[in-house]
Each structure stands twice: as structure tokens, then as C-alpha cells.
Specification:
The protein has 17 helices and 15 strands. By secondary structure, the chain is of the alpha+beta class. Helix 2 (18-56) packs across helix 14. Helix content is 51%, strand content 15%. Strand 9 (250-251) and strand 10 (254-255) form a beta hairpin.
Amino acid sequence: MNFADIIALALRNLRQAKLRTALTVIGVIVGVAAIVTMVSFGIGLQQNIIAQAFARLDAFTSMTVLGADADDLLTMSEGRTALDEGEQEVEKGASPQASPEAGASPAAPQRPRRVLDDDAIAEIKTLEGVKFAAPIVTFTCYTRFNGRTRFQTIGGATPVADPRFKTFLAGGSFQTDDAGEAVVNESFINAFSAEAFRRRQNRRGGPPGGGPFQTVSTKTDEERQREAQAVIGQDITLLSLPGGGNEQGSIFGIPLFNAPGAGATPPAGGENDDSRYDKRVFRIVGVLKNEGGVNFSPFGSAGFYLPMEQAKQLREANLSPMERMGATLTGQAGYRAVELRVADPSRIKPVTQKIEQLGFRAFSVTNQLEEIERIFLIINSSLALIGGIALLVASFGISNTMIMSIRERTREIGIMKAIGGSDGEIMRIFFVEASLIGLLGGVLGVLAGWGIDRVANVLANQWITRQTGQAVRYVEFFSIPWYLWGGAILFAVMVSLLAAIYPALHAAKVDPIKALRHE
């Protein structure tokens, strides 16, 4: 018999036992659908975190540089080295330099040995491959806007073209470091709206759209642009306690709006008569677009941004008592971190090595990408294993179907062997039958898994919308790439063939004489 005859015979045999074949195929469908659904969730999660969130943040060309904090400086001032406490313990007891061949774990990375100040940043900027470096400067302050006062986080940004600014809905960035200007985002505008205050009063919970999902407005792009354009030119007032500095009309050397050379006018309404606090006024020149979706920003969660030099001064004026104490004990003050951009991802590793040689620590998502992908590989493998249990159960159904078919067709098998059919041909018939069951179940299982994913994805996004009270950008929780559905179908066929080994061997060993006598 040629291969076409074997396929035709296998199809005829499967049609003769339609109910049994259908039940066996359903078992394969359930197993494949379980694998596709579970693994697609793991892949979708991986894509949301790496491909979308990190890529939108330019994570593969950006890195964060950390300098020595107050604890590091105090450790070094006490006569110790720059080694961290874990390595100090090695000096006290364990072998100081265990070789990798001996199976010891690698040494922990060193703590930063230098303060991250302006001179250090200038040195970092000279490194080959570095195209942007700026300190991450944030502070909190009471802010007055649109007739309302709220506690806000404020960040600093470089003038003209800060690469951390994505898309402007209206206006643009500030032009100089001494300009009394500010760039806000849509979240800032929404936070000071009457609707936000009503919602906060009713919900009495966290801010709407909190967590990793960044809410987006349900308004059209034209409406959002009109609202953004309407706030251009309006004033934001920063409020601080009076008497913080050593100069009249200033806070730690920062001129107030009514001090000479401040370059800003007080807002209308008689606020200048209130001596309970000092004020600093900034004019809005740009509104950043809220991109929505998953958001993990190393730039901080600031509501609006000021020119970098002014943000640095204001941060010093708003330091907490403990931060002031640390600067007093060490006699040095620097930045907590610097955000750095390289020309391309291939520069990440050499730049990281040079930065560590300078006495700082550098962190990049790219450095941890291998570990992240390894974690997701473990997660996806675990999910596939759980789904594979259902397919394993289905394999017993395939074996049962084949064995029952042998018993029903014993006489037919005897006739085929009597007229010259070989053992190999008999085995191929049963292998083809099993592979057809696996192929049909695999294809239908992939389609079923795709349908489950679509329904679950819609329900999950609706649930998030109900929980946040606002629309969020549609998130794909499930992803079925070609290698997943192709691998699932191939795996179903392979399991079916393995399940048919015993029945095929049993059919090949049938004695034709006894089979012809079988009733």
C-alpha cells in the first residue's frame, strides 16, 4: 500500500467510529487549549512588561547611575573600605576570594565610592557612547493651581530638548535654566479639576488610575488638545514656609516672586497679603501627553517639571530633616541618581564598566534582561506543564481508542496480513490514525485557545476600567505568536504518535491465522 491508500484507510476507520473519535479529539482539544491559553498569558505578560513598558521608556538605551549616599560616606569615613557589609563578613570568616571553579557564588557588586555631584556628571558625559546625562531631581511641595492647592511631586528637566519628554499636546519645553516656566502633564491638569476633587471625595481611596495601569482620558484628541492649550500661559504657585534662608526675600537663596530679579508677578486675588507662606510662581509653557497603558518611569511620577537648576535649588530648600542631617554628618551632598542615555544598546555594557571604574554603580534594564527572560521562561514552562497534564490525560484516550479499534478490526488485520500486508504497513495505519486525531485536535484546540484568550482579554480590560473608574489603554494580556500555535499543534501530534506506539505494536503482532478465525 502506498501512503495515499494508508491515509484513505485511516480516514475510513475513524469515520466508522464517529462518536469514539469525536470524544478522543475533544480530549486533545481541551489539552491544547489549556496549553495555548496558559502560555499565551505568560507571553503576553512578558511583552507588556518588556516590549511595551520598557521600550516606551527607551529602556534599552537608558541606564541609571547611583552615587554614594550618606550611609556609604559614613562607612568610608569610619575607616572602612568601599566594600559592602556582605564582603566585610567574608573578611571576618569565610574565604576572601573563592574561585568560580570551586563553585562559590560571585562576589556582590561594590557599593558606590564617590558622591554623584555636578563634577561627576560632567565626567560621565565625556565617556564614549554617552549622549545624554542629567540628574534625577524630584521634591514635594504644596502647589496652587486653578484656585486649588494640593501636595505635588515636582521634577527637574533640562531646557530646550529633554529626551525624557515624549509628546507635547500643546506648547513646548522651557528655553533657559533661569526661566520662570513649567511643563505639566495631563495628569496634573486632571488632578486640579473639579471632577477630580469630587471623585476623590466620593471614593476616598488612592488616586484614580493608580497602580501600573496609567489611565487615559475618554475625551477625543481634539478636546484634549483644546484643554491643554487653555492652560498655556497660566501660573503655578509653589508654597513654602517663610524664613528658610539667610537672604531677605528668598528661601535658601531662592528668590521669591516679589524679590528683585525674580521675573514673575504675583497671582491676582490678594495672595501677596498672606504672610503665612512664601510663594514662587511659574508660567506653564507646555503640556505633555499622557500615553496611557503600563507605566514604569525612572523619571519619577512628577506632576510637572521645572528647569533643572531651579529644581535643584528648590529641592535643597525642601529637604527633609533626615536628609539635612545626613548632609551635615558627611559634609557632602550629591544627587540620588543620574539618568543616562547611550547611542545604542550595544554601548550599555562598556559604559557600565567605565562608570563602575569611576566609583559609581550603574543599573540598566538591558543588564537584567537575561535574568528577566530566564524568569519568564520558567513561568511559561510551568504554565505549559500544567496545561500539558490535560494533554497527557488525552493521550490515554487515544491509546484506548486505538486498542478498541484493534479488537474490532482483528479479522480485517488478519486478512491484510494474509494477502501480503507487512507489519510496518499495519503499524503505519494506526500511526496515521493517531496523527490525524492529534492534528485535528491540535488545530481545533488552538482555535479554542484563541477564542478563550479574546473573551478573557475583553473581560480583564472591562474589569480594570470598572476598578479605576476611567478608561485605560487597551492591554493585550494574551499573545499567541506563530511558534506557540505551531508548537502546540506539533506537540499534540507527537503525543498522539507516542500514545499509538503500544496499539500499533500490538496490531503488528496479530497472528493472521488466529485473526481469520476471530468472530
